[in-house]
């Protein structure tokens, strides 16, 4: 390489200006970055590759904003098969690539969604779908161009090039893994990516206890990592900041004071939970039963609750001498002095000063086998995390399992109070019961998607993996039919119905257009020198 230092600096400065100009475009202007354009320029290649996903990402961005201004939502579901996606294009404008579904259907070692599949599983599925979409688009265009203009008006014309939103899970490890998986997703064709605050290797939704989140600071770093990689690539990819704190039972560490308010400790004089469980296992007792017993006896609560309990005890059992020292408003004073991010030791000191005694509380005692700390999830904590990462992300998403409608409402209202006009995403689940005790009525359920779009701006709503139940039922039906009715059944129930569909479907079913029959013929004809387009 030549050593023209002036030229090198000039090119670098030009790149910095290009980045600054890009950050001033309407799509980028709302993002508040903690780094400068020159930092990003220094992390770019000397000749950055064009980002082929950008038209799709901008299409997604516009679509979400159109929905926001109309008060409607894009409804889609997770798919891993490009053929299925080609049919979805008739009704929806985006497609979701679910990690759970990919791990279950695109993996040689399938299993429940513990995000334990190889980190490049989702990028590979995105790549497959992206290429499939391009091919369907090419196939349709070629069929249409075979017909004169006036005939084309009666033909189908689908937009197969639906922006893909991909599951980035928890970034799959350290920050460098987050950067790599973001890069792979963007290169594969992801117009949107979501990333969450679950702990790597600890995603577990199958049994009662298990959801583990990382500290706030680690979540913030993941969002920063993803955004920084998008900046390095010059990618318009939409960043969905998902927060999985709802129903979380554990947090991996106490390092971030912003989480201290929600970490649970034992207030009774008990032995460490894990020690008790280990002994139970040795003596062939049920660890679950022992655990439940321990939890019931340990006085598990947050530190603030322990302070309140101590305050109530002191006031109830106060003697004259204690009474004279204890301010009757001590707990209110305590509450007014602890703020978001006040660490445990300051809370302890303050409580001691106001109550005159040490408040018993130990968050080490309930730690789990893997060292996680017990955690109490609240809507307030979700809002705090979502608020923190909102300026760096484009869409907020509170992941809620078996959600309480009142929580959904409280979360979105709190966020909108800080960020009016914010875009939100929401994932519905499978086999949820929607009980009235959680704010659900059959009336509400009927229109909840539309209502959430209109009232809160939840513009992207998905059924992430569970639509596969519908697909399974169709396959089951076809399998039963084929086995009992054979070719006669296929002819009558599938072939005839597909080919006789009116109006004529470009997608197919005639002359094998759905599997590219026309397109192959066109290749042969063009090579032979025939004109294949009609006017
Ligand atoms: C959206 C999700 O990430 C997925 O992989 O589809 C899962 C879905 C689920 O387990 O219900 C998730 O929400 O974590």
TrEMBL record:
Q: Does the keyword DNA damage apply?
A: no
One Gene Ontology BP term is:
carboxylic acid metabolic process
User: Keyword DNA-binding: yes or no?
Assistant: no
User: In which domain of life is the source organism classified?
Assistant: Eukaryota
The record lists the catalysed reaction(s) as: (2S,3R)-3-hydroxybutane-1,2,3-tricarboxylate = pyruvate + succinate
Which family does the UniProt entry place this protein in?
A: Belongs to the isocitrate lyase/PEP mutase superfamily. Isocitrate lyase family.
Protein name, UniProt field: Isocitrate lyase
């Amino acid at each position: 390489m030549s050593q023209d230092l002036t030229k090198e600096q000039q090119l670098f400065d030009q790149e910095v200006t290009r980045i600054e100009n890009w950050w001033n475009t309407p799509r980028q202007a709302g993002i508040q970055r903690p780094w400068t354009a020159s930092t990003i320029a220094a992390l770019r290649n000397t000749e950055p590759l064009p980002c082929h996903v950008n038209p799709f990402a901008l299409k997604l961005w516009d679509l979400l904003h159109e929905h926001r201004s109309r008060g409607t939502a894009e409804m889609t579901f997770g798919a891993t098969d490009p053929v299925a996606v080609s049919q979805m294009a008739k009704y929806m404008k985006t497609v979701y690539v679910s990690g759970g579904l990919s791990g279950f259907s695109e993996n040689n070692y399938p299993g429940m969604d513990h995000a334990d599949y190889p980190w490049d599983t989702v990028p590979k599925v995105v790549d497959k779908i992206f290429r499939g979409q391009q091919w369907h688009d090419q196939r349709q265009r070629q069929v249409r161009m075979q017909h004169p203009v006036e005939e084309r008006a009666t033909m189908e014309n689908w937009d197969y090039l639906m922006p893909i939103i991909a599951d980035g899970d928890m970034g799959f490890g350290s920050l460098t893994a987050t950067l790599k998986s973001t890069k792979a997703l963007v290169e594969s064709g992801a117009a949107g990516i979501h990333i969450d605050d679950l702990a790597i290797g600890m995603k577990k939704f199958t049994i009662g206890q298990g959801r583990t989140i990382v500290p706030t600071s680690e979540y913030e770093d993941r969002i920063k990592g993803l955004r920084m990689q998008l900046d390095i690539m010059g990618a318009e990819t939409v960043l969905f900041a998902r927060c999985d704190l709802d129903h979380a039972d554990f947090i991996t560490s106490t390092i971030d004071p912003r989480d201290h308010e929600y970490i649970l400790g034992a207030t009774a004089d008990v032995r460490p939970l894990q020690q008790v469980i280990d002994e139970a296992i040795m003596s062939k007792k049920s660890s679950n039963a022992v655990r439940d017993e321990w939890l019931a006896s340990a006085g598990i609560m947050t530190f603030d609750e322990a302070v309140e309990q101590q305050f109530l005890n002191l006031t109830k059992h106060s003697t004259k001498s204690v009474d004279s020292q204890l301010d009757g408003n001590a707990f209110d004073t305590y509450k007014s002095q602890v703020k978001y991010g006040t660490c445990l030791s300051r809370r302890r000191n303050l409580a001691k000063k106001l109550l005159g005694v040490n408040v018993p509380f130990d968050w080490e005692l309930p730690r789990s086998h893997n060292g996680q700390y017990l955690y109490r999830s609240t809507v307030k904590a979700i809002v705090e995390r979502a608020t923190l990462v909102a300026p760096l992300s484009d869409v907020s998403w509170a992941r809620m399992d078996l959600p309480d409608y009142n929580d959904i409402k409280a979360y979105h209202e709190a966020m909108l109070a800080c960020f009016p006009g914010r875009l939100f995403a929401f994932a519905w689940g499978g086999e949820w019961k929607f009980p009235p005790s959680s704010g659900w009525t059959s009336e509400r359920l009927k229109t909840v998607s539309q209502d959430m779009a209109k009232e809160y701006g939840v513009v992207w709503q998905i059924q992430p993996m569970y639509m596969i139940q519908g697909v399974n039922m169709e396959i089951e039906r076809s399998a039963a039919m084929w086995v009992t009715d054979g070719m006669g059944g296929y002819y009558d129930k599938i072939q005839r119905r597909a080919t006789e569909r009116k109006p004529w479907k470009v997608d197919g079913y005639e002359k094998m257009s759905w599997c590219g029959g026309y397109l192959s013929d066109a290749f042969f004809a063009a090579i032979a020198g025939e004109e294949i387009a009609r006017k």
